[in-house]
Amino acid sequence: MSTSYQSHNPTSSGSFTTDPGETAIFSGDTVSGIKDAASEMKDRAADAANIAKDKISTAAEPVTDKARAVAEEQKQSGAERIDGVAKAVHTAADQIGREVPQVASYIHSGAEQLEKASRLLRENSIDDLLQMTNRLAHDRPLAFIGGSVAAGFVLARFLRSSGPANAGAHQGARP
Question: How confident is the model at residue 34 (pLDDT cuts 50, 70, 90)?
Fold first, then answer.
């Protein structure tokens, strides 16, 4: 026994027929209508996703701006600290130069590299520094990894040494 259905939609002239236990067979107009509806739903979903993305992006702008401002402050502070270290290294090199002049030139050279790093921080934006870092990581991955490990050790020592003054008292109290 076959059941036949006619469309009551004035925009569709299609019909489909089913037999008991069989899948419906749709006419070309019905299939085209389904495809159009699916395409429209896909477009609407894409539009909704773009609207959500724009709203999230707009909401994140103040956070991004604040993060950039903090990073810029830290970058300038770091450049000042590096300058201070470079001056101290030059002073040490001068003192060592009185005793061992050959070694002093190497130490001054190291201080000059610190000054160069400080200038690099001062004269470049955060985005420029990130680009330089990415380029180094891409062009010389071993140097990048080695530098990252060395920077990690230096940072760890700095953080330990700049901890609270009473941290040493707690360490001495251990059995």
Answer: confident
